[in-house]
Amino acid sequence: MSQEMIQHLAKRIADDIIKQPGKEISPTEPLISSGLIDSFSLVDLSLMVEDDFDVQIDDTELNAETFDTLEELAALIKSRQ
Hints:
By secondary structure, the chain is an all-alpha fold. It is built from 3 helices and no strands.
């Protein structure tokens, strides 16, 4: 998994999605199941990922089963590039 991609995702989520600049998010920290990202923020996250990485995320994938950690999200992005 690309450390650069995971770091980029962590920074963008902290700064732009949850509005907590400087918050450290580990690659294995649960995002959705922990409540860090709620259903409204999930849509924002999906749009940010699509814009930043030029990939398509299906609405059915917007859940904790598909990507709940930065590692899972990075793997999903990699599979679409």
